[in-house]
Amino acid sequence: MIDFDSLGRERQVAPALNLHIEPKDPIELDDMLASLATLGKRFQTFAREELADEFRRDPKLYVSSIKPGSIDISLIPDFIDAGKAAAGAVVAVGAGDTAEAVKGFAESIKGLLDIFRKPEATKKEQDGVSIRDCDDAVNIVKPIAASGGSQTFNVNNNHGTQIFQFNMSSPDANRIIQNALEKKASLLLPQTETRASVALVWQKIDKSLARTDGATSPDKGRIDEIDAGAKSILFAEDMAAVKAEIMDDAMLKMVYYVDVEVVRVDDKIKAYRVIRYHGKDPLND
């Protein structure tokens, strides 16, 4: 329903992302602040990557109101004049565009949380998830996970009409946290892929025993067909003796044909683990 002021003018409000929280227990201040700060940072990223140029001027979210009782917080973007919005007038690039921008941001938050909430989330959906996404999902839902109860996210347009909403229960929040932490742990673990019969050129060799674990080693080598940079060279446990066999003064002048596992951490190559040795040739032949 459209509201009018005493002069018959349509009364407008600022399009906002509204958080309605009904906790069973008091919410720890650190959890609430972390949730709001995370929403603010994600809005900055969303505005810079997804919105038109006129919305990208140092984008921020501001708390425009907090109501007593159950926790109600309204967040408005900084391309609204907050002072005039409080007086009942929206001053923005365009009220409709502003509402759609806020709605788009809310949809992006729902999309992030659904990845960790839905048991049927596909591997493809999770493939694009970063460590920051995992941390952000945990922070956003932490207040309701720790305090119980429920939380509603909704967006109103400049008429005050609700145009988007989604709900979160405490069990949902705890499921999101568990799945996000598990995904983060998998991203932090070294990931391996096997490459056969590649040409390894040594850049640095240490006379100590072959390193068989971890993702770093004093031995460095280059496999140009995988990456031009020198990486740590590890050896599988049953290949550790190979280092002693091939070590001689000419090592740096030879090319060695090996099968390797490519060790990645957070999708970056950190090392090669030699799992089979085929032979060698002079580097300059």
Describe the structure.
By secondary structure, the protein is an alpha+beta fold. The protein has 2 domains: 173 residues; 92 residues. 34% of the residues lie in helices and 32% in strands. The protein contains 7 helices and 10 strands. The strands form 2 sheets. A 5-stranded antiparallel sheet has the order 2-3-1-4-5. Strand 2 and strand 3 form a beta hairpin. About 5% of the residues have low confidence.
Shape: elongated
The helix content is 25-40%
Give the neighbour order of strands across the main sheet. 2-3-1-4-5
In N-to-C order, the SSE pattern is EHEEHHHHEEHEEEHEE
Q: What is the distance, rounded to the nearest whole angstrom, between the alpha carbons of the first and last residues? A: 83 Å
Short structural description:
By secondary structure, the chain is an alpha+beta fold. The protein is about 35% helix and about 30% strand.
Which short descriptors sum up this protein?
10 strands; 32% strand; alpha+beta; 5-stranded mixed barrel; 2 domains; 285 residues; 7 helices; 5-stranded antiparallel β-sheet; elongated
Spell out the blueprint of helices and strands.
Elements: E1 16-22, H1 29-50, E2 61-67, E3 71-77, H2 82-86, H3 95-117, H4 123-127, H5 131-147, E4 150-156, E5 162-169, H6 170-188, E6 191-204, E7 220-223, E8 227-235, H7 240-246, E9 254-265, E10 268-282
Parallel strand pairs: 8-10
Antiparallel strand pairs: 1-3, 1-4, 2-3, 4-5, 6-7, 6-9, 7-8, 9-10
Helix pairs in contact: 1-3, 1-5, 3-6, 5-6
